[in-house]
Every structure is written in C-alpha cells, then in structure tokens.
Amino acid sequence: MSKYEPLWKYVTETCGEELVLSFEEIEQITGFPIDHAFLQDKKELTLRGFAVKKISMKEKSVRFVRCG
Questions:
Q1: I need a surface site. Which of 10, 35, 38, 48 has the fewest CB within 10 A?
Q2: CA–CA distance, 37 with 47 (Å, rounded to integer)
C-alpha cells in the first residue's frame, strides 16, 4: 500500500470529472508534503479510474481527472 493511499481515497470519493488540489491541500490530506515518490506512486491511481493530468510547480497544484 502506498503512503499516498489517503490521497487516492480522497480523489476517488471527491472528484467528478476533474479535481485540482494545491500542494498544501495534499499535505493536509496525507499528513506530509508531496515528494518525488508521488511521481512513481501516481500510477496506482489509474487502477481506480483516475489519473494525474498535470503537476504545476509554478501554481503548486496537481490536477486529477477521471479516466475514460
């Protein structure tokens, strides 16, 4: 199980077609700041029907979308 499991659960329960979360919001959900492991672990989200569409370092946000 990924350390990002709380985030995946939040996304699947909250996201309609698209959801944008700030890095700060992700930290509140997971209990720790987003890190490089996120890049590898984000693949787990596709098994739940969602994907990371964009990671914006400038805006410090992540855009999630429903697949299909």
A1: 35
A2: 17
Cα 2 vs. chain centroid, distance in angstroms? 12
A 10 A CB-CB count for 46 gives: 11
pLDDT of 1 > 80? The answer is no
Place of tokens 């995946």: 8
Distance, in Å, from the CA atom of 59 to the CA atom of 68, rounded to the nearest integer, reads 26
Global confidence as pTM: 0.91
Q: Which helix (H) or strand (E) holds 10?
A: helix 5-14
The pair of structure tokens assigned to 3 is: 């350390």
